[in-house]
Design brief:
The structure holds two protein chains of two kinds. Chain A is mainly alpha-helical. Chain A has eleven helices and no strands. The chains are: A mainly alpha, B alpha/beta. Chains A and B meet through helix 8 and helix 10 of A and helix 2, helix 3 and helix 4 of B.
C-alpha cells in the first residue's frame, strides 16, 4: 500500500499544464488554495471543485492515481468527522466543508507536483524567492530543501514499510505504543543516514548555494500570462 | 596522479586510518579491499575531498584536497554504494544535469552532454522517467551517468555492486572496465567482494585502518586475503 503512494511524483505527459512556467503553477496553487479557504458555501465549493477537476483533466492526471494518493489521508478525514460528531454535532455542516476543503488542498497540490519536475520547481521557487537574498536567505538552498523533501517522500514510506515488515515478521504488534517506538527509532536512524549520504553526494557533485546555470531555463511567455488571467477570471466568477 | 602522504584520519579519539602512503596513476584501475570497518570507504572519501586528513596530505594532480576541495571534486567523481540516496532530482535527465548546473555549464551544452551520457550508458529510454520508478541497476547507471557527465579524470566506486543482482553486477563491472579502457578514466574500486576486482590492475588491502598490501593484483596471495578477513 505504502509502496504505491506516489505523492508529489512528477508524471511526464504532453499537456498544457505540463508546459506552463512553474512560477505560474505555484501562483495558481496559491490562488486556488486561498479561494478554497475563503469559500463557505456548498454551491461555490462545488464550482471550485469542478474547476479543479477540469484542471486535473487538462493535466491528463490519472484519476485512479489521484484517489490512491488521497486514500492514505482517509484516517485523518474520519478522525475529523468523528470529532465533529462527538463534540460539535450542530456544526457538522462546517465539518464536511472543512474536509472538502482539505481534499481540495491536496488535489491542488498534486496537480502542481504531478506536472512539474523538481528541477523546474526549484528554478521557479528560486526565481520567486530572489528578493530573499537581501535578507541573507539563500533562495537556491531554500528551494532545494523543499524539492528534496518531495523527492524523498516515497523513499521515506518505503523505509517505513521495510521496517514495519521486519517488526511484524518477528511478531511485533504495531498497535502497542512500545512497538510503535520500535518502528520510529530505526526509521529516524535510516532517514538521518540517507540525509548524510545525499549531502555527501551533493558535495561530491560540487553543489554550492550559488546558482551558476539552469538545465531548465524557465522564461515567462504569453501563454503563461494568458493562463493565469483565465484562472483568475474563473476564480473571480466563483467567488463573486 | 593521486598521492596520499602519511595520511591519518581520526574520529572522536579513534584512529580510523593510520599512516597511509600510496599513489594512483592516471588511467589506472586500482581496487581497495578490506573487511567491514577496515577504513576503505573513509580513505576513498579523502580522494574526493569529502573528508580531510587529520594528519598528512592528499594531492590530486598536485592539488591539495584541504586547500582546493572544489577543484579536486571536478577531477574525482564519486559513485556511492546506495544509488537510492545519491539521486538529487526526481527525473533521470535532470539528475544527470545536477553536477553540470553546479559547474555552470551553458544550458544547450548541458542538454547535449546529458543526451550523450544517456546514449553512452544505453539509458536513453529512461530520460524522462521518475527515479523512484527505476530498478536498482537503472538507479546505479543514472548515478554513474551523473558523475561521468562532469568529465572526471578519476572515479571512485564505493561498493557499487552491493545492492545489485547478478546480471546488473556484471553489467556495471563491464561498464566500469569500458570507461577505464576507452576513456582512460582512473578507476578506484572500493569493495569487499573479490569478484568485483577482476578488472583491477593494482590492489590495496586495508585492515583496521592500516595498509597491509599495495601491489599488482597478480601478487595478491591467499595469505593476505585471509589476513584481511576476506576469505570465505
Amino acid at each position: 500500500m505504502l509502496k504505491r503512494l506516489s505523492f508529489g511524483q512528477y508524471r511526464h505527459k504532453d499537456s498544457l499544464i505540463h508546459e506552463l512556467d512553474p512560477r505560474i503553477k505555484i501562483i495558481a496553487v496559491a490562488i486556488l488554495s486561498a479561494s478554497a479557504f475563503l469559500i463557505s458555501s456548498y454551491y461555490k465549493m462545488a464550482l471550485l471543485s469542478l474547476l479543479v477537476l477540469l484542471l486535473i483533466a487538462i493535466a491528463k492526471i490519472n484519476f485512479s492515481s489521484l484517489i490512491r494518493n488521497i486514500m492514505p489521508l482517509s484516517s485523518i478525514i474520519i478522525f475529523i468527522l468523528i470529532m465533529y460528531l462527538l463534540f460539535s454535532r450542530d456544526q457538522l455542516g462546517n465539518g464536511i466543508l472543512s474536509i472538502w476543503r482539505f481534499l481540495l488542498f491536496v488535489a491542488i497540490a498534486l496537480i502542481l507536483t504531478f506536472t512539474t519536475t523538481i528541477n523546474s520547481m526549484v528554478a521557479g521557487i528560486e526565481k520567486m524567492l530572489g528578493p530573499l537574498k537581501y535578507f541573507k536567505v539563500n533562495p537556491r538552498t531554500f528551494a532545494l530543501l523543499i524539492s528534496l523533501t518531495i523527492r524523498f517522500i516515497p523513499s521515506f514510506f518505503l523505509y517505513a514499510e521495510r521496517i514495519r515488515d521486519a517488526r511484524l515478521s518477528r511478531l511485533g504488534n504495531l498497535k502497542k505504543a512500545k512497538h510503535i517506538k520500535l518502528l520510529f527509532i530505526p526509521l529516524l536512524d535510516r532517514v538521518f543516514k540517507s540525509a548524510s549520504t545525499i549531502s555527501d553526494a551533493m558535495a561530491a557533485r560540487i553543489y554550492t548555494a550559488e546558482r551558476k546555470s539552469y538545465f531548465n531555463n524557465i522564461r515567462l511567455g504569453a501563454f503563461d500570462y494568458f493562463s493565469l488571467l483565465v484562472l483568475m477570471a474563473a476564480v473571480s466568477v466563483i467567488l463573486i | 596522479m593521486i598521492e596520499a602522504k602519511n595520511l591519518c584520519f581520526q574520529y572522536e579519539e579513534e584512529a580510523i586510518l593510520q599512516n597511509i602512503s600510496l599513489s594512483i596513476k592516471e588511467g589506472s584501475y586500482t581496487a581497495f579491499i578490506g573487511a567491514n570497518g577496515s577504513g576503505k570507504t573513509t580513505l576513498a572519501k579523502h580522494f574526493n575531498a569529502l573528508l580531510m586528513p587529520t594528519k598528512g596530505t592528499i594531492l590530486v594532480d598536485n592539488i591539495d584536497t584541504k586547500k582546493y576541495p572544489f577543484a579536486v571534486r571536478k577531477k574525482v567523481g564519486f559513485v556511492f554504494q546506495n544509488p537510492e540516496d545519491q539521486l538529487v532530482h526526481s527525473i533521470v535527465e535532470e539528475d544527470i544535469a545536477f553536477g553540470l548546473e553546479n559547474i555552470g555549464m551553458e544550458t544547450r551544452a548541458m542538454k547535449e552532454r546529458v543526451n550523450f551520457m544517456l546514449k553512452e550508458l544505453a539509458i536513453g529510454h529512461l530520460a524522462k522517467k521518475n527515479v523512484n520508478a527505476l530498478s536498482m541497476g537503472q538507479k546505479q547507471l543514472t548515478a554513474l551517468a551523473g558523475v561521468l557527465a562532469m568529465n572526471p579524470k578519476y572515479v571512485v566506486f564505493d561498493e557499487p555492486t552491493t545492492m545489485l543482482d547478478n546480471r546488473n553486477k556484471k553489467n556495471i563491472l563491464s561498464i566500469i572496465n569500458t570507461i577505464n579502457e576507452k576513456n582512460n578514466i582512473g578507476i578506484i574500486m572500493v569493495t569487499n567482494v573479490l569478484d568485483d576486482i577482476k578488472y583491477a590492475e593494482k590492489v590495496v588491502v586495508l585492515k583496521n585502518g592500516k595498509m597491509i598490501f599495495n601491489d599488482k593484483k597478480s601478487k595478491l596471495s591467499q595469505k593476505i586475503i585471509r589476513e584481511a578477513g576476506l576469505d570465505a
